[in-house]
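Thread: adenosine-5'-diphosphate complex, take 2
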Amino acid sequence: MYVEVVINRSAKRLNKTFDYRIPKQLESLVTIGSTVLVPFGKGSKLEEGYITKIKDDTSYKVKDIVEIKYNLTESQIKLSQWMAKKYFCNTSDCIKQMLQPGTKNHNKAKNIQEKIINVVYLKQDFEKIQFDIDTGKIKSDKQKRILQFLNSTEGATIPEIELFTDGTRAIVKTLEKNNYVEIMEKKIERNPLADKNIESTENLQLTDEQQCAFNKVQAKINSNTFEEFLLYGVTGSGKTEVYLQLIGEALKMERTAIVLVPEISLTPQMIDRFIARFNKEEIAILHSKLSIGERYDEWNKIKEGKAKIIIGARSAIFAPTQNIGIIIIDEEHDSSYKSEAIPKYDAKEIAKKIAEENRCPLVLGSATPDMNTYYKAKQGIITLLELTRRANNSNLPSVNIVDLKMELANGNKSMLSVELHEAIENNLKEGRQTILFLNRRGFSTFVMCRECGYTVKCKNCNISMTYHITGNKLKCHYCGYEQKVVNTCPECKSTKIRYFGTGTQKLEQEIESIFPKATTIRMDIDTVTKKNSHEEILNKFKNENIDILIGTQMVVKGHHFPNVTLVGVIAADSSLNIDDYRANERTFQILTQVAGRAGREKLPGQVIIQTYNPDNFSIVSAKEQNYEKFYNTEIALRKQLKYPPFCDIILMEFNGLIEKDIISLSEKVYTYLKIKLKDKKFYILKPMPSPIDKIQNRYRWRIIIKGNMTKEVNEIFNECLRKIYELNYKDTRVTIDVNPNNMS
Ligand code: ADP
Ligand code: ZN
Ligand code: ZN
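Output below.
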């Protein structure tokens, strides 16, 4: 028996299969998807690899497989191969996504990570034991008491035996020797939900709109068919309640459910709603804040079929669950569903593939759907389900726009407009909470000389350094390089150095000086680093009734603060000015979501948006909470300028240590693609340096291509990559990202 193996290494030249022989004694153990150790290359060094095919014959002279480590399923291998083509990477990179966390050294991991305890069980029927007691074969009272105790419980640990009887470890060992009891190892699962005690909830009576949405998806669960749905409903319209009841439906059909949420909204508040409705033993949680041991255990729970509901961030889509009855992606517009690292996959695309395979519905939920998703819904490719009203009848907040140009003209140089200032003051008087939202991080974005325009840039990355008040230093956000602040310009020796832009720290200082009695708490990338810190900050804000929360994007997602009645957006423009065709969409999404934080319960909410562009349509439609209006304007613009969904944007990036190598390579590729894509209505830009043209001493060039990524075109790009690797450029990497999140 022979197999084809992919080697678990990222080197592009290893993105093919190698043949090996299976020794007779291992034949019965291998399956497609097995991880194996094989001798590889000149020195026959042992390498890890994955079996992708089993066959009777080979035309090569081959070596034997040395060891089998563990198994993936055949469908996981198929998915990896599909991904490798689609996302232009190695199969092994994709397989890695599906491996159990901590399985690098499986056996060792198991021992370290699993907590094993010894449990004592009766080894014979108690009737027989009783006979031995009655006939005097067992004389010791202590022995009798242990046996009787064990008869009353389903196994006990030695400490428990010592506690409940006056037996000792030595007596238990004697009983073991005499064959009355046996001691077995038992695995204790470290359950991140273990100490949760949540009052359970019943299904709510659905509103007509909820019921209508529920029925359509339920029909697909029951008939075991794939269909993609968009559940579009304003914040608080009861989407989560619909998810919960649909999951209940899948469980009833003896099937499982996967729920994806953005990493940052995997808060205890959100998880509690699932625990309250379902048996917590049946829920597995997967996210990056779990310890490796916890992730290992959760993975096991899923593999063994104990966990039926899997809730997690992007990568939870690879959870080893079978017989899926529904996949739900909440906040589907969130950019975190697209991976920025290799493999650069889109969890929504993977979810669709898996849902098709499992013949189950896929539900995408959002209050501000992704333009592409809504476009598909309009085209009838995705079934649209709408919730137009808030479920608990609370009103949407009132939103005001403040023109910062006018504030400046009136001589107000503060970060707070008069209106926002007064609103905060009022809120403090009323004892209500406020959230102030700033779309930036750090104290200042960059440092500039006002005489000659010199800005301090990172010497590795050629990108502006950011001033951090903590430690009084400049920091590069790309590579982490730090340097001391400059007080005189290195170019012109002027001392007129200024810190441009404003950040959360500066806002916090300003708030503290304006409202010295108010309590404040800040949440941004600098304060959120430790495990749980994100939650700690939010819990503190909520439980200690802190007056003002100051934060970046992080405050936007999914939280529920009953006492927050005012939300202030310090400068809506920061996301409008990002160098990306989605700037309007991002701005609309962020503002709508921020506004959704105010007045979620009985108290009416108020939102104040400060901006230099009060007439911009994304800001105006966010004020009106009018997605439809935003969509109609934006889609017309996209059509005119030919942006997605009317085409795909393909970013091909070249990076390497030798600049002239990547320039010559990108030029060759440009010429090649010009010819290959000639009749395909493609628009190929000439190679140029990336906006950040050097990161960690690697030069970066790129080609941007617009057109429709079909199967055929995908093959052209894969072929192009193969040709590039045949050229054998040293230390040069080429990546392709279709519709990347970030163009810088
Ligand atoms: P979304 O997920 O769309 O933001 P939620 O599911 O969180 O909305 O619902 C918002 C609030 O409305 C929650 O407090 C929820 O318990 C309540 N709710 C949802 N559906 C109903 C219903 N059918 N009847 C009464 N209250 C509901
Ligand atoms: Zn200068
Ligand atoms: Zn840097």
